[in-house]
Amino acid sequence: MLRRELVLSSAAMALAPTLARATTYPDRIIKLINPFPTGGTTEILARILAEHLYAELGQRLIVDTKAGAGGNIGLEFTARAAPDGYTLAMYPISSVMAPSVYKDLRYDPIKDLSAVALVGKMPALLVVHPSLKINSLADLIAQAKASPGKFSYASAGIGTSPHLYMELLKHLTGIDVVHVPYKGAGPSIVDQIAGQVDLSFQTATAVLGNVRQNQLRAIATSTAEPFKPLPDVPPVSKTVPGFDASTWFGVVAPTGVPKAIIDKLNAAIMKVLALPAVKTKWGELGVTIGPNTADQFAAFIRSEQEQWAKVARLAGVKPE
User: Using CA atoms, how far apart are residues 115 and 262, in angstroms rounded to an integer?
Assistant: First the structure.
């Protein structure tokens, strides 16, 4: 009996510092790493979250941009940070794609980061420059097959979702279009508007305004479901059966952050996402979200990693 009491007492003593940290957390400013250049969807969502989380957590969140290498510089920085809950990061779908396209990742985007919460899903839009005589995906496929290599497509970098979405489309249709990788969605959008590249998959949130201003023409959405802000734009799957892909973003922390802190952050983010002002903004941007726990987001990350590893193999994408 005495031994059992000693074991329980030791366990309680070991747990006490963690519980104390969770009770007082946060007691200073939190960094929210944006792993892509300014102007993209990641930064847009990060700044909205940071603004509203202040009321829930009682501390400011500073959005700190650390861009490059398809988001891997910022995420590696986060993975190497102290596991105390004061360094978080926006985690895009491209993170689960990274192991399939990068030979020498210096961190593991699955094992070295802990899921906190999924904050939004949205389609990507397949957009073309308005000067092109392409008004539908069928037009693009026909012209690309007639002139292999004529068209170029932009991506936010090797291994990002716009890259693998287009490689999947190439695999399913047999078209040949030339990849032009950029250091983030923002620069790729600027160059496409300027006519430097012909087409791209872009997160709907990032280019919705450009489409409405006729700076880009949307010819298809990546998901099978309609995109409410642009209901007349058909899904890729209407022309290419089997194509269905959601772009998504979440929040992660370094592995080792106490579960009590992860749960506290998750609860705060869920409250922010339920705010009428945020729900309205998410709706305007075409972002959807449902309640989710940290464990549910972790399971989702694992399933997405498996799915996109298969896509990379099917499309013949070689790690570089």
Answer: 8
298: Cβ contacts below 8 Å, ≥ 6 apart: 114, 115
Cα distance between residue 202 and residue 221, in whole Å: 10
d(CA 48, CA 147): 43
Task: Check whether residue 53 and residue 200 sit in a common domain.
Answer: no
Alpha-carbon 211 to chain mean position:
21
- CB contact burial 185-199 (16+ within 10 A = b; e otherwise): bbbbbebbbeeebbb
User: What is the distance, to the nearest Å, from the Cα of residue 185 to the centroid of all Cα atoms in its chain?
Assistant: 11
pTM for this model (two decimals): 0.80
> Do 117 and 6 belong to one domain?
yes
What is the CB-side half-sphere exposure of residue 200 using CA atoms within 13 A? 34
Residue 40, judged by CB atoms within 10 A of its CB (0-12, 13-18, 19+), counts as buried
Q: Which of 206, 231, 18 is nearest to 127 (CA)?
A: 206
pLDDT of residue 314: 78
Sign of CA dihedral 133, 186, 250, 228: negative
Q: 39, 63 in Cβ contact below 8 A?
A: no
CA distance 290 to 282: 12
* Position 62 in a domain: yes
Spatial strand order in the sheet of 217-221: 178-181, 152-155, 199-203, 124-128, 217-221
The boundaries of the domain holding residue 171 are 124-238
Residues 96 and 192 in one domain: no
- Tell me the residue type at 18: T
Final residue of a domain: which of 185, 204, 238? 238
pLDDT tens profile 232-291: 999 999 999 989 888 899 999 999 999 999 999 999 999 999 999 999 999 888 888 878
Nearest 5°: CA angle at 305, between 304 and 310?
95
pLDDT in tens, 210-221: 999 999 999 999
